[in-house]
Specification:
Length: 227
Protein backbone atom coordinates (compact mmCIF):
# COMPACT_ATOMS: atom_id res chain seq x y z
CA UNK A 1 0.00 0.00 0.00
CA UNK A 2 1.07 3.54 -0.69
CA UNK A 3 0.19 6.68 1.22
CA UNK A 4 -0.74 9.88 -0.55
CA UNK A 5 0.81 13.10 0.64
CA UNK A 6 -1.35 15.63 -1.21
CA UNK A 7 0.46 18.32 -3.16
CA UNK A 8 -1.54 21.40 -4.16
CA UNK A 9 -0.77 21.21 -7.90
CA UNK A 10 -1.59 17.51 -8.19
CA UNK A 11 -4.75 17.71 -6.12
CA UNK A 12 -5.92 20.73 -8.10
CA UNK A 13 -5.53 18.66 -11.24
CA UNK A 14 -7.49 15.78 -9.74
CA UNK A 15 -10.28 18.12 -8.73
CA UNK A 16 -10.32 19.65 -12.20
CA UNK A 17 -10.98 16.22 -13.67
CA UNK A 18 -14.31 16.15 -11.91
CA UNK A 19 -14.04 13.12 -9.63
CA UNK A 20 -13.84 14.68 -6.19
CA UNK A 21 -15.58 17.71 -4.77
CA UNK A 22 -14.70 20.02 -1.92
CA UNK A 23 -17.57 19.62 0.51
CA UNK A 24 -19.03 21.62 3.34
CA UNK A 25 -17.66 22.04 6.84
CA UNK A 26 -18.64 19.59 9.62
CA UNK A 27 -21.02 22.15 11.12
CA UNK A 28 -22.80 22.41 7.77
CA UNK A 29 -22.67 18.65 7.36
CA UNK A 30 -24.62 18.17 10.57
CA UNK A 31 -27.62 19.98 9.11
CA UNK A 32 -27.26 18.52 5.63
CA UNK A 33 -29.94 16.03 4.61
CA UNK A 34 -27.88 14.38 1.87
CA UNK A 35 -25.63 11.40 2.41
CA UNK A 36 -22.14 11.11 0.98
CA UNK A 37 -21.11 8.45 -1.55
CA UNK A 38 -17.48 7.49 -2.02
CA UNK A 39 -16.07 7.73 -5.55
CA UNK A 40 -14.39 4.59 -6.85
CA UNK A 41 -12.60 4.61 -10.20
CA UNK A 42 -12.03 1.42 -12.18
CA UNK A 43 -9.38 1.58 -14.89
CA UNK A 44 -9.11 -0.95 -17.70
CA UNK A 45 -7.94 -1.12 -21.30
CA UNK A 46 -10.55 -2.41 -23.74
CA UNK A 47 -7.82 -2.85 -26.36
CA UNK A 48 -6.18 -5.49 -24.17
CA UNK A 49 -8.91 -6.77 -21.85
CA UNK A 50 -12.35 -5.27 -21.43
CA UNK A 51 -12.50 -6.69 -17.87
CA UNK A 52 -16.23 -7.31 -18.33
CA UNK A 53 -16.47 -9.80 -15.47
CA UNK A 54 -14.63 -7.52 -13.06
CA UNK A 55 -16.77 -4.54 -14.06
CA UNK A 56 -19.94 -6.57 -13.53
CA UNK A 57 -18.70 -7.75 -10.15
CA UNK A 58 -17.86 -4.18 -9.16
CA UNK A 59 -21.34 -3.00 -10.11
CA UNK A 60 -22.87 -5.83 -8.10
CA UNK A 61 -20.68 -4.93 -5.13
CA UNK A 62 -21.84 -1.30 -5.37
CA UNK A 63 -25.49 -2.39 -5.57
CA UNK A 64 -25.12 -4.61 -2.51
CA UNK A 65 -23.05 -2.17 -0.47
CA UNK A 66 -24.69 1.12 -1.38
CA UNK A 67 -23.10 4.52 -0.91
CA UNK A 68 -20.75 4.30 -3.89
CA UNK A 69 -20.36 6.21 -7.15
CA UNK A 70 -18.51 4.20 -9.78
CA UNK A 71 -16.45 5.66 -12.60
CA UNK A 72 -15.51 3.22 -15.36
CA UNK A 73 -12.34 4.48 -17.07
CA UNK A 74 -11.36 2.87 -20.38
CA UNK A 75 -7.77 3.74 -21.22
CA UNK A 76 -8.23 2.31 -24.71
CA UNK A 77 -11.04 4.64 -25.70
CA UNK A 78 -10.08 7.98 -24.13
CA UNK A 79 -6.65 9.60 -24.12
CA UNK A 80 -7.55 11.72 -21.12
CA UNK A 81 -8.01 8.53 -19.07
CA UNK A 82 -4.41 7.54 -19.78
CA UNK A 83 -3.32 11.01 -18.74
CA UNK A 84 -5.27 10.67 -15.52
CA UNK A 85 -3.82 7.32 -14.57
CA UNK A 86 -0.34 8.64 -15.34
CA UNK A 87 -1.03 11.56 -13.01
CA UNK A 88 -2.11 9.18 -10.24
CA UNK A 89 0.98 6.99 -10.78
CA UNK A 90 3.25 10.03 -10.59
CA UNK A 91 1.56 11.17 -7.42
CA UNK A 92 2.14 7.78 -5.79
CA UNK A 93 5.71 7.71 -7.18
CA UNK A 94 4.88 4.51 -9.08
CA UNK A 95 6.55 3.72 -12.40
CA UNK A 96 3.21 2.48 -13.72
CA UNK A 97 -0.18 1.23 -12.60
CA UNK A 98 -0.90 -2.17 -14.05
CA UNK A 99 -4.48 -2.61 -15.23
CA UNK A 100 -7.15 -3.45 -14.29
CA UNK A 101 -6.91 -1.16 -11.27
CA UNK A 102 -9.03 0.55 -8.62
CA UNK A 103 -8.51 4.02 -7.17
CA UNK A 104 -10.36 5.59 -4.28
CA UNK A 105 -9.98 6.85 -0.69
CA UNK A 106 -6.19 7.26 -1.14
CA UNK A 107 -5.73 3.66 -2.25
CA UNK A 108 -4.50 2.27 -5.56
CA UNK A 109 -5.17 -1.43 -6.17
CA UNK A 110 -3.34 -2.45 -9.34
CA UNK A 111 -3.14 -5.57 -11.47
CA UNK A 112 -6.40 -7.07 -10.18
CA UNK A 113 -6.48 -10.79 -10.90
CA UNK A 114 -9.87 -11.95 -9.65
CA UNK A 115 -13.29 -10.87 -8.47
CA UNK A 116 -12.55 -12.16 -4.96
CA UNK A 117 -9.37 -10.08 -4.76
CA UNK A 118 -11.25 -6.99 -5.90
CA UNK A 119 -14.07 -7.45 -3.39
CA UNK A 120 -11.61 -8.11 -0.56
CA UNK A 121 -9.62 -4.97 -1.29
CA UNK A 122 -12.78 -2.89 -1.66
CA UNK A 123 -13.93 -3.98 1.79
CA UNK A 124 -10.54 -2.93 3.14
CA UNK A 125 -10.68 0.44 1.39
CA UNK A 126 -14.16 1.15 2.76
CA UNK A 127 -13.31 0.24 6.36
CA UNK A 128 -12.46 2.57 9.24
CA UNK A 129 -10.78 0.72 12.10
CA UNK A 130 -10.81 2.43 15.48
CA UNK A 131 -8.36 1.04 18.04
CA UNK A 132 -9.76 1.93 21.46
CA UNK A 133 -9.52 1.17 25.17
CA UNK A 134 -12.38 0.63 27.60
CA UNK A 135 -12.56 3.53 30.05
CA UNK A 136 -10.68 5.90 27.76
CA UNK A 137 -12.62 9.22 27.65
CA UNK A 138 -11.24 10.19 24.22
CA UNK A 139 -12.28 6.78 22.88
CA UNK A 140 -15.75 7.34 24.33
CA UNK A 141 -15.95 10.73 22.60
CA UNK A 142 -14.77 9.17 19.33
CA UNK A 143 -17.51 6.54 19.48
CA UNK A 144 -20.11 9.23 20.12
CA UNK A 145 -18.80 11.31 17.23
CA UNK A 146 -18.79 8.38 14.79
CA UNK A 147 -22.26 7.33 15.94
CA UNK A 148 -23.42 10.86 15.12
CA UNK A 149 -21.83 11.16 11.68
CA UNK A 150 -21.10 7.61 10.54
CA UNK A 151 -24.48 7.08 8.90
CA UNK A 152 -23.72 10.00 6.59
CA UNK A 153 -21.36 7.64 4.74
CA UNK A 154 -23.44 4.50 4.05
CA UNK A 155 -20.55 2.63 2.38
CA UNK A 156 -18.24 3.13 5.36
CA UNK A 157 -17.79 0.18 7.73
CA UNK A 158 -16.64 1.25 11.22
CA UNK A 159 -14.90 -1.46 13.25
CA UNK A 160 -13.85 -1.02 16.89
CA UNK A 161 -10.95 -3.05 18.29
CA UNK A 162 -10.18 -3.11 22.02
CA UNK A 163 -6.39 -3.06 22.43
CA UNK A 164 -6.16 -3.86 26.15
CA UNK A 165 -8.33 -6.94 26.36
CA UNK A 166 -7.24 -8.23 22.94
CA UNK A 167 -3.53 -8.89 22.41
CA UNK A 168 -4.22 -9.54 18.72
CA UNK A 169 -5.84 -6.11 18.33
CA UNK A 170 -2.91 -4.48 20.12
CA UNK A 171 -0.38 -6.19 17.84
CA UNK A 172 -2.42 -5.19 14.81
CA UNK A 173 -2.48 -1.56 15.96
CA UNK A 174 1.27 -1.56 16.51
CA UNK A 175 1.81 -3.02 13.05
CA UNK A 176 -0.40 -0.34 11.48
CA UNK A 177 1.38 2.44 13.35
CA UNK A 178 4.79 1.17 12.22
CA UNK A 179 3.58 0.85 8.64
CA UNK A 180 2.76 4.55 8.58
CA UNK A 181 5.90 5.45 10.53
CA UNK A 182 3.93 7.07 13.29
CA UNK A 183 3.98 6.87 17.07
CA UNK A 184 0.77 5.95 18.86
CA UNK A 185 1.21 8.31 21.81
CA UNK A 186 -2.48 8.22 22.68
CA UNK A 187 -5.75 6.49 21.93
CA UNK A 188 -7.86 6.18 19.91
CA UNK A 189 -5.98 5.33 16.73
CA UNK A 190 -8.17 5.62 13.63
CA UNK A 191 -7.10 3.90 10.42
CA UNK A 192 -9.01 5.09 7.34
CA UNK A 193 -8.38 6.61 3.89
CA UNK A 194 -4.94 4.97 3.87
CA UNK A 195 -3.80 7.06 6.82
CA UNK A 196 -3.97 7.46 10.59
CA UNK A 197 -5.60 9.90 12.96
CA UNK A 198 -4.14 9.48 16.43
CA UNK A 199 -6.01 10.78 19.45
CA UNK A 200 -9.29 12.68 19.57
CA UNK A 201 -9.57 16.21 20.95
CA UNK A 202 -13.09 17.38 20.20
CA UNK A 203 -15.62 17.50 17.37
CA UNK A 204 -14.57 20.95 16.22
CA UNK A 205 -10.90 19.94 15.82
CA UNK A 206 -10.21 16.23 15.35
CA UNK A 207 -13.78 15.63 14.26
CA UNK A 208 -13.48 18.35 11.63
CA UNK A 209 -10.35 16.70 10.24
CA UNK A 210 -12.03 13.28 10.03
CA UNK A 211 -15.04 14.68 8.17
CA UNK A 212 -12.81 16.69 5.85
CA UNK A 213 -10.89 13.51 4.99
CA UNK A 214 -14.07 11.54 4.29
CA UNK A 215 -15.74 14.39 2.41
CA UNK A 216 -12.73 14.86 0.16
CA UNK A 217 -13.16 11.36 -1.25
CA UNK A 218 -16.94 11.50 -1.54
CA UNK A 219 -19.74 13.59 -2.94
CA UNK A 220 -23.49 13.90 -2.41
CA UNK A 221 -25.17 10.62 -3.31
CA UNK A 222 -27.37 10.47 -6.36
CA UNK A 223 -29.49 7.69 -7.81
CA UNK A 224 -26.89 7.14 -10.53
CA UNK A 225 -24.03 5.03 -9.13
CA UNK A 226 -21.78 4.73 -12.19
CA UNK A 227 -20.54 6.95 -14.94
Amino acid sequence: MHRIHPQPIVMAALLAMGVFAVNCSPVEAQTQSTTQCFSIEFFYDSGVNDAAELRAALEQFADDRGGLILHMRDVGSDESVQQRINLIANHFKMSEIKLPALYGLKYVVADIKSEDQMRSRLREILRMTAYVRNGCPHCRDTKAFLAKYGSRYPALEIVYKEVITSAAANREMQDVVRRYRRSAASLPVLHYCNGLTIGFDRESTTGRKILQDLDYWSRACKSQKKS
